[in-house]
Amino acid sequence: MTIPLIVFFYLYLLFIVVWLIFSIIALYHIIRYGQINYISIMAVIIYLAGVAVIFSLSFVFLSQIDWTASLAILQGKVGVFGPDY
Amino acid sequence: MFIYSLPGKLPGEKIIKIIRRDIFILIKKVILTLILIVLPALAFGMMLALYPNLLNGEISYPLIVLAVSAYGLFVWLFSFFSFIDYYLDLWIITNLRIIDVRQEGFFSRTVAEVKLFQIQDVTSELEGFFQFIFRFGNVYVQTAAEVGRFAFGQIPHPEKVRDIIIRLAAQDKEKHHHDVHHA
Which terminus in chain A has less CB density within 10 A, N or C? Predict the structure, then answer.
C-alpha cells in the first residue's frame, strides 16, 4: 500500500488553516483588549515577523521537494529513514 | 504613547495604577517556550545520530520539513498566546474603584470591580522562595460588595499595592461619607 507524499502536504495545509484561525483570534484579542502602547505594538510586530520568517523558510525548503513520490507502508522501510546504502 | 479605555468609566474617574503579574511569571513562560524548542531539537539530533541518512531520504526529508514547519508555527503561536495570557490579565486601581480583568482561555474574559468605599480590609502576602527573592506576591481585598474577596495574584511589591489601596479607600470613604451627609 502506498500513500502519495502530497497527502501529507494537504494535511500540513489543513493544519495551517487551523493555525491561522487561532492566530487571528490571538491578534484580535491583543488589539481589541490590550492597551495601545509600545509593548503591545512590538509584540504584534515581533509575532508577525516570526511568522514571516517561518513561512519563508518553509516555502524555500518545501518548494525543493518532489511531491510525486509515495510512502510505502507495510512493505519494508525503504526510503523512510533515508536510503539504505 | 499610552492609551487605555476604562471599562464603564465613571465621571471624574482617573487611573492611579495598572498592575500585571510579576515579570518572573513571563520569564517562566519564556523558559517553557525555550524547552519546547530545545528538547525536540535534541531528540532530532539523537535520531540523526542513529539514522545518519535521515535528511537524504526521498520520503523522510519532506516529512521532516513538514513536521518542523508545523511544530515551529505551533510553538510560536503558543508563545504568543502565553504572552497574551500574561499581558491581558491586569488590575486597574482608579480613584473610585478596583477593576480585575482576566483573560481565561481563548474565548472567555472576565471583568470584575469593587468600589473603593466598600473595602473593609486589605492584606498582602509574600510566600515562597522565588516570591521572597523577587518580591512578588498576593493582595487580598475584603469588601462589603457582592464579590466578598478580591484578589491580586503574583503581583510585584504587594505591600506597596496594599498601602496604595488602603490610602485610596480611606480617601474615598471620607468623600463618600461627606457626600452622603451633605446631599
Answer: C
